[in-house]
From TrEMBL:
It holds the Pfam family SBF. Its main location: membrane. GO terms for cellular component: plasma membrane. This is Arsenical-resistance protein.
Length: 337
């Protein structure tokens, strides 16, 4: 692994620190960036997210879907947890904590926005970072590719309806136009662009050139991630300084969700007698979130300074160290499988 991937949690931590400091000392600069919007889409954030996810989308090989029936158990495990369990468990935890346990600590409007941000995280299964988690657990790379490809196709059609359903059940108004624009901008277009560029490289220059391109562009993905983190924490800097306890309140249900889903997935994988190189990445895909999409949609739907955006930013804060701890656990328990 490269220097960026190996010390990813360090770079994310430093980016968070830079964002919070810069946001408090240069609020006007961040206000200018926040004003660069078009149809509720912040152009700077959109650019960074595209830089972050496009290299990952080029890796997605829809031709691999023809192999989906060869080892169906891992695929079924991932799809059931990603689309029938995780979105609804996240919505339930959000409601339980912010409408019951923490009801006296936050105002109703903020509570609704925090729940909305959590729902967006729960409905967005991991697409990009899962290749890193799979590599760290010595997962079957081709099988991971199949799983991600299937998930991406489902996400293109299921993300908006499930999000709208759960937001509606939580009494949160659903701006359908913004939701659909976000799905097109951050899922459909990157997927189509990645697919087209992958086919072009393979047709013109072959698989060796594709691999060289992916290796060369990989740092840009991490740079996009770190730039996004700096901006997001800069936008939320004053809230974080003034109300640090809110970060903890949001992190609690997110941690319960993440470790709970992983425990369920790992137990089911063992019951299904999956080999470790399929079980580990399947559980990582089931557990982790496409937080880039969640962040972008939260900003588009609720605004840069909203509680929903803050909740997805906390998701970024929690995601990397928690997933690295699960990678460590999966590697330590390889002999279980």
């Amino acid at each position: 692994m490269g220097l960026f991937e190996r010390y990813l949690s360090v770079w994310v931590g430093l980016s968070i620190l830079v964002g919070v400091i810069a946001g408090n000392f240069m609020p006007d600069a961040f206000a200018v960036v926040a004003g660069l919007e078009f149809f509720h889409v912040n152009l700077v954030v959109a650019l960074l997210i595209w830089v972050m996810i496009f290299p990952m989308m080029v890796q997605v090989d829809f031709a691999a879907i023809k192999d989906v029936g060869k080892k169906p158990k891992g695929i079924i495990l991932t799809l059931v947890l990603n689309w029938l369990v995780k979105p609804f468990s996240m919505a339930l935890l959000g409601w339980l904590f912010f409408k019951v346990f923490f009801a006296s600590m936050v105002d109703p409007q903020s509570a609704n926005e925090y729940i909305a941000g959590m729902i967006l995280l729960g409905v967005a299964p991991c697409t990009a970072m899962v290749f890193v988690w799979s590599q760290l657990t010595k997962g079957d790379a081709n099988y991971t590719l199949v799983q991600v490809s299937v998930n991406d196709i489902i996400m293109a059609f299921a993300f908006a309806p499930i999000t709208a359903l759960l937001l509606g059940v939580s009494d949160i108004s659903v701006p359908w136009e913004t939701l659909i624009i976000s799905v097109v901008l951050y899922v459909l277009i990157p997927l189509a662009a990645g697919f087209a560029f992958r086919r072009y490289l393979l047709k013109q220059q072959g698989e060796a050139q594709l691999n060289r391109f992916l290796t060369g562009i990989k740092p840009f993905s991490v740079i996009g991630l770190l730039g996004t983190v700096v901006l997001l924490f800069g936008f939320q800097a004053q809230t974080i300084i003034e109300q640090p306890q809110v970060i903890g309140l949001i992190a609690i249900p997110l941690l319960i969700q993440t470790y709970g889903i992983f425990a369920l997935a790992y137990w089911l994988a063992k019951k299904l007698k999956l080999p470790h190189n399929i079980a580990a990445p399947a559980c990582m895909i089931s557990t982790s979130n496409f937080f880039e999409l969640a962040v972008a949609v939260a900003i588009s739907m609720f605004g840069l300074h909203s509680g929903a955006a803050l909740a997805t930013v906390v998701g970024v804060l929690v995601e990397v160290p928690v997933m690295l701890s699960l990678v460590w656990f999966a590697n330590k328990t390889r002999h279980w499988f």
